[in-house]
Amino acid sequence: MEYFFFFLLGVLVSVMSGFFGIGGGFILTPFLMLIGYEPVEAITTSLLFTIGSSLSGIVAHLRMKNIYWKEGLLLGISGMAATQIAKPFVLFLEERGYDEWVIPMLYIVMLSYFSVQMLKKEKAVQKGMQKRSPGIGKVLIIGFGAGLVSTTLGVGGGFIIVPLSVAFLGFPSKKAVGTSLFAVLFIVSSGFVSYSFDVQIDLLVGLILVAGGLIGSQFGARLTNFFANGEITRLLGVLYVSTVISVIMKLVNFNTAGLAITALFLLSFFVIAFVRVRSKKKTAGEQ
């Protein structure tokens, strides 16, 4: 039952990954900490999971032509360089016992900022205010920042890349999602290899999560066809808010409440997705 739980968790998180282009780690890492994993162990496990979920999501978005290859490569390369800087910082925190509160606090600050940005940007998307302007300098800075955050927090970096690609590079949400997954594959692979020399994890659990992730990412990527760009942006903002609240619950030792909030968002998302898919298929059938 334990292994089935992790398989199902991998499926659910990877649906989010394929839909939002976030790699899945920023959902999985706080969740693993809520169920008792040490922060560094949760980070390393999440990076392994994100390799599989990102690869699967890329395949789906490739078919839908949702990837800007040049920008994705630049984001990935600059992010890989940043992972080598972040790792010593995380190990420093662990050695001194600061990781139990510093890493959750970083989550809270960054996710709060990006939740506001995504919810504000959703209004701009609806008004048609976006213009694509992917300057190389902007792309490299965003990729570097994503690499730092990826290795510090055990996330793919997509939760940085997607909102900043929408806000500052002018990418449509669906293109931001596909390009992010491509860049994230480079970043998390570098981060995981770097950590694997110093951190012991339950490799079987990691591989079971990956197995579930290979299934869910494909489904999540296809779901983007049933939502407008502005809707994806708004849902991502709500996801950030719910994750912030769950991490706050972890800090004040209300782990059960944190898990409940995460579960509530997942349930709400899948209900909305089910209704949307069913409605559009019914409309298509009537036509």
Task: Describe the protein in words.
There is one protein chain. This protein starts with a helix and ends with a helix. The chain is an all-alpha fold. The longest helix is centred in the C-terminal third of the chain and has 32 residues, at 255-286. Helix 1 packs across helix 8 (173-196) and helix 2 packs antiparallel against helix 3 (39-63). The chain has helices spanning 2-20, 25-34, 39-63, 69-95, 99-127, 136-153, 158-168, 173-196, 203-223, 229-251, 255-286.
Topology:
Blueprint: H1 2-20, H2 25-34, H3 39-63, H4 69-95, H5 99-127, H6 136-153, H7 158-168, H8 173-196, H9 203-223, H10 229-251, H11 255-286
Keywords:
287 residues; mainly alpha; 11 helices; membrane; transmembrane; Probable membrane transporter protein; TM_pro_TauE-like
The helix-strand sequence is HHHHHHHHHHH
What would the principal axes of the Cα set say about the shape?
globular
- What Rg do the Cα atoms give? 18 Å
Give the total of beta strands.
Answer: 0
N-end to C-end Cα span: 45 Å
**Major sheet description:** none
Q: Classify the secondary structure makeup into a structural class.
A: mainly alpha
Summed over residues and divided by their number, the pLDDT gives a mean of 81
Q: Strand content of the residues, in percent?
A: under 5%
Low-confidence residue ranges? 124-129
Helix % is over 70%
User: How many distinct helices?
Assistant: 11
At a glance:
It is found in: Cell membrane; Membrane. The chain crosses the membrane at residues 6-35, 42-62, 74-94, 101-119, 139-169, 176-197, 203-223, 258-277. By secondary structure, the chain is mainly alpha-helical.
